[in-house]
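Title: Comparing notes on inverse folding

I've been comparing how different people in this forum approach sequence design from structure. To keep things fair, I'm posting one structure and asking everyone to reply with a full sequence. Here's the target:
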């Protein structure tokens, strides 16, 4: 039968003492034994029965050896890596820091106050970024998808470059995380490597979130401030523009799609009329928003986010121009974009088809803002015979429409400053990286050089 331990007095803390306390009944109130061999080391016997180590570092200042629960029963367990000598060594190390002038207790208290990534995203950064950044929802979703699972329980001050290295390696190799592997019951899934540019953007999003924590004085410094980015070929084309033939094929495929849907609606209404059913509204010039949205993108170079945010009050059909307001522009700068004849006719026909609205989004989904046209757009690309990924790995996506606009301006000899203003770039350096020198002009330059050498 267990007996009440009564010898709670300063004495050497040894294995035998811990074994005896572990077998004894817990005290009615918490009791402490101070080690006479290791200054500051305390063995506390809780009334719950727990045996905990503490280190006294001054009046009213005590801490656990490793700032976490340290049950003394571990040192008498032969399977445990924790030893009594390790506990005593840590107590002496903490005492040495105290003698050197450090306030270990205050440092640990401050460290414990730092939120985990999950707490920071939920309570602080998430609400702020969604309210103050146009793409806040997407930014938050990106951080949560990339880092939430693996680092959600990690304090944001511990998100160092070294901590991200295993994550970076797994992303590059396309390996699933431990949690993902667990969800698939260990089944091998197809590896999908991630491009260097994507990894850089993921880390940049997290680094920006931590910079906000520094500004709010949640942490003293950004642990990712000096993180290395993946080396990338800045001149490698990932997204390409359309050739003149592809542009013609795309427009033809869009017209064919509208005609097909219009004829289909007419056949359906004929069938309904024969049976006495109510008729559906006939389809006008355009079957839906896809054709006018693609044409306006091709003819103005608007970013997708700018296009989807465009509202009718900023479309001036009389003066043949539209305005991208700063609140919806990537650079936060308002700009006016002239409308070509095709863009003007398209917007006018769409305005008439929509009932000549005075307000609302130009391209909407049931009155609200569009989220994506990816599915229908890709279907039209396939119909037009346009490869979405070519042999060089260059992709055609919605951004290709903007890229086509810029490339056509450059090929027409438009000066870089005008291209920069029309496309809404922040500086000429962006314009020069974004646009690619026309191959014909390159070849002409080389041929001219050859003519000078042999003339």
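Reply #1:
Here's my take.
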């Amino acid at each position: 039968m267990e007996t009440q331990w009564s010898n709670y007095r300063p004495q050497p803390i040894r294995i035998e003492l811990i074994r005896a306390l572990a077998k004894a009944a817990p005290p009615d109130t918490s009791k402490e034994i101070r080690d006479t061999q290791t200054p500051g080391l305390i063995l506390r016997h809780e009334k719950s029965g727990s045996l905990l180590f503490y280190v006294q570092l001054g009046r009213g200042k005590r801490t656990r050896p490793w700032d976490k629960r340290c049950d003394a029963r571990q040192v008498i367990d032969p399977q445990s890596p924790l030893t009594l000598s390790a506990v005593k060594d840590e107590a002496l190390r903490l005492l040495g820091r105290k003698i050197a002038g450090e306030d270990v207790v205050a440092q640990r208290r401050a460290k414990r106050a730092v939120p985990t990534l999950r707490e920071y995203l939920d309570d602080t950064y998430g609400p702020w970024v969604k309210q103050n950044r146009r793409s806040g929802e997407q930014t938050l979703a990106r951080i949560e998808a990339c880092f939430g699972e693996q680092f959600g329980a990690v304090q944001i001050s511990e998100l160092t470059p070294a901590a991200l290295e295993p994550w970076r390696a797994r992303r590059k190799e396309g390996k699933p995380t431990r949690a993902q592997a667990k969800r698939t019951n260990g089944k091998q899934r197809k590896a999908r490597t991630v491009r260097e540019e994507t990894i850089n953007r993921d880390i940049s999003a997290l680094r920006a979130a931590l910079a906000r924590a520094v500004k709010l004085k949640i942490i003293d410094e950004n642990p990712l401030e000096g993180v290395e980015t993946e080396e990338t070929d800045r001149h490698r084309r990932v997204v390409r523009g359309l050739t003149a033939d592809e542009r013609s094929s795309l427009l033809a495929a869009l017209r064919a799609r509208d005609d097909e849907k219009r004829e289909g609606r007419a056949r359906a209404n004929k069938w309904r009329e024969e049976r006495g059913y109510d008729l559906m509204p006939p389809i006008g010039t355009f079957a839906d928003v896809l054709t006018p949205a693609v044409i306006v993108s091709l003819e103005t170079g608007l970013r997708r986010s700018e296009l989807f945010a465009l509202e009718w009050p900023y479309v001036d059909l009389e003066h043949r121009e539209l305005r991208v307001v700063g609140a919806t522009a990537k650079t936060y700068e308002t700009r006016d974009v002239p409308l070509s004849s095709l863009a003007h006719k398209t917007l006018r026909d769409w305005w008439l088809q929509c009932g000549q609205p005075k307000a609302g989004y130009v391209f909407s989904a049931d009155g609200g803002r569009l989220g994506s046209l990816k599915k229908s757009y890709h279907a039209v690309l396939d119909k037009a015979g346009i490869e979405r990924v070519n042999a060089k790995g260059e992709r055609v996506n919605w951004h290709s429409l903007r890229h086509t606009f810029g490339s056509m301006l450059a090929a027409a000899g438009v000066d870089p400053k005008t291209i920069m203003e029309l496309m809404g770039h922040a500086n000429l350096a962006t314009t020069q990286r974004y646009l690619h020198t026309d191959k014909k002009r390159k070849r002409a330059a080389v041929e001219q050089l050859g003519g000078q050498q042999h003339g």
